[in-house]
């Protein structure tokens, strides 16, 4: 009898423990597995979750909009956000902006090794010991600093010469010191199965046949932001040139590009984001430099590299009206990089391959390049404009500096939204407020958006996933009215959810709707936000830095 009693007590304790485990798991992770979410039942599941949320609606008050062009210099962070990868060792030196594939770490650090050796050599020029300082900075970002006048180094070695043409067009004096300091080539990385299919249909695989296949909706590829990425800008020009080689800005080129762009799944902010999309199987191909391809064994086994566009041979330019002693240092350094020892090192790191590749594309002047970027901005969504909802955290934890930066990010970032798109605004704390219903981004909607953002104040807890659910419901209703729009969500938060639904409650639903959710974290739990964005290959931005405005500007410029 005693044993039976003990057994009964143990059984009751075990049941209680099991109940607690299940209860805690539901609290922490939600009820994702309770209902299998499919295309057929997703709307019903969303409606059931939505009805649990107390949604408050407010009338939008118009704000004063600024019609002046965006001020790039004011959006750029302090230049010291971008690291010095090699310090100067003497008082007489030059600072060189270098693209990241050669001034980073490991196999991306070729130029750093050359520069360190140069500084150790103790060259004497004009009676003084000289050295170089290298700053690691992406070519597009470097161009923004230089053309805006916010910070101009002594020299610049971008991935290709296109950026120098843009700088020239902005009245910054440039002098070509070396056309090539290290060789590289951009390309389209294509899965082997798709490569074989293209070869079978088109007889050869090159940029022209790939772009034709894209226009025919037979091939899905991604490319990077042509305002920020050397490879992305090069690909944009290659596509336009494919449609009209005599005039890349002609009506024929524009119409061809618009048709092509309608079949582009997405344009990535970064190569990393694009590669993650490729891993998921969403892409048949994407753009990449050969040096990166060479250093990626996982890609070499499954993909074929097809070169396109202008070569990426890292030209070196002197900038501004430099004194002779600085010009002499730059010339000496260019000469130093060409030594056999360093060119062999470059080969070891994946550079200086495909030397026989010659581009059919010719160098294009800076004004035409800027016009091509603007054409891309207008036509990049093809026949599918964006409908986006901004979901902003106004909980108590966002009080002070985080809310100030959130407002600044949205007020400056909204200047980069395309007029053909539609936007709405939702805020959340304990509950959710619909601040601005979705509408086309006319001057009237812009004024309402500015007014809504300016009036934001913090209060209460953090119901992040309730805010996301409301945005999803708004977008579902918008897609029913306008089936050709592409839905997007931007979440701006500190990431610490403590109210309402959980990630587990909504994860399956987000996946079923396939709506990309871009997350911007202010002093946030970045891992949680990354997990939300990764569901549908969107990007996450860490805004715990003074470059948040510039980062968000770039994100909105690409996606909106």
Automatic annotation (TrEMBL):
Protein species of origin: Gottfriedia endophytica
Domain VWFA per the UniProt entry, residue ranges: 387-560
Alphabetical keyword list: Membrane, Transmembrane, Transmembrane helix
Record has Manganese as a keyword: no
Protein name: VWA domain-containing protein
InterPro entries: CLCR (IPR051266), VWF_A (IPR002035), vWFA_dom_sf (IPR036465)
Domain of life the protein comes from: Bacteria
Keyword hit for Hydrolase: no
Membrane-spanning intervals of the chain: 7-30
């Amino acid at each position: 009898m005693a044993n039976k009693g003990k057994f009964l007590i143990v059984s009751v304790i075990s049941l209680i423990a099991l109940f607690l485990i299940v209860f805690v798991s539901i609290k922490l992770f939600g009820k994702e597995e309770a209902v299998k979410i499919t295309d057929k039942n997703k709307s019903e599941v969303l409606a059931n979750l939505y009805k649990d949320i107390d949604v408050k609606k407010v009338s939008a008050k118009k704000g004063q909009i600024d019609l002046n062009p965006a001020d790039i210099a004011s959006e750029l962070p302090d230049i010291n956000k971008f690291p010095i990868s090699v310090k100067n060792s003497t008082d007489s030196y030059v600072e060189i902006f270098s693209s990241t594939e050669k001034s980073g770490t490991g196999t991306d650090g070729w130029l750093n090794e050359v520069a360190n050796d140069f500084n150790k050599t103790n060259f004497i020029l004009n009676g003084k010991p000289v050295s170089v300082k290298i700053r690691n900075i992406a070519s597009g970002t470097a161009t923004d600093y230089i053309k805006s006048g916010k910070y101009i180094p002594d020299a610049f070695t971008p991935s290709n010469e296109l950026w120098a043409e843009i700088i020239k067009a902005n009245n910054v004096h440039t002098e070509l010191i070396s056309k090539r300091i290290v060789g590289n080539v951009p390309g389209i990385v294509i899965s082997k199965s798709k490569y074989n299919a293209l070869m079978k249909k088109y007889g050869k695989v090159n940029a022209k046949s790939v772009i034709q296949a894209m226009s025919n909706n037979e091939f899905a590829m991604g490319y990077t932001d042509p305002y920020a990425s050397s490879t992305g800008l090069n690909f944009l020009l290659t596509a336009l040139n494919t449609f009209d080689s005599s005039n890349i800005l002609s009506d024929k080129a524009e119409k061809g590009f618009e048709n092509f762009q309608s079949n582009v799944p997405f344009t990535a902010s970064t190569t990393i984001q694009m590669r993650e999309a490729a891993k998921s199987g969403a892409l048949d191909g994407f753009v990449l430099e050969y040096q990166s391809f060479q250093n990626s064994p996982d890609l070499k086994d499954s993909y074929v590299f097809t070169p396109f566009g202008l070569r990426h041979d890292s030209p070196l330019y002197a900038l501004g009206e430099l004194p002779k002693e600085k010009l002499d240092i730059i010339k000496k350094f260019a000469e130093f990089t060409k030594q056999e020892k360093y060119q062999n090192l470059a080969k070891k790191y994946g550079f200086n391959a495909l030397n026989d590749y010659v581009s059919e594309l010719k160098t294009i002047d800076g004004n035409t390049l800027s016009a091509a970027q603007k054409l891309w901005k207008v036509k990049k969504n093809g026949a599918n404009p964006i409908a986006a909802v901004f979901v902003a955290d106004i909980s108590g934890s966002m009080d002070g500096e985080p809310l100030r930066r959130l407002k600044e990010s949205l007020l400056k970032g909204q200047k980069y939204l395309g007029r053909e798109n539609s936007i709405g605004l939702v805020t959340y704390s304990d509950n959710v407020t619909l601040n601005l219903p979705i509408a086309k981004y006319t001057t009237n909607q812009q004024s309402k958006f500015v007014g809504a953002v300016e009036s934001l104040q913090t209060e209460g807890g953090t119901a992040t996933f309730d805010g996301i659910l409301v945005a999803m419901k708004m977008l579902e209703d918008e897609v029913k009215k306008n089936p050709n729009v592409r839905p997007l969500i931007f979440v701006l938060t500190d990431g610490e959810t403590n109210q309402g639904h959980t990630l587990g409650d909504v994860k399956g639903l987000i996946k079923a709707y396939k709506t990309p959710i871009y997350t911007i974290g202010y002093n946030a739990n970045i891992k949680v936000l990354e997990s939300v964005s990764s569901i549908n290959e969107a990007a996450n931005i860490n805004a715990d830095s003074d470059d948040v405005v510039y980062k968000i500007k770039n994100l909105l410029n690409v996606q909106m």
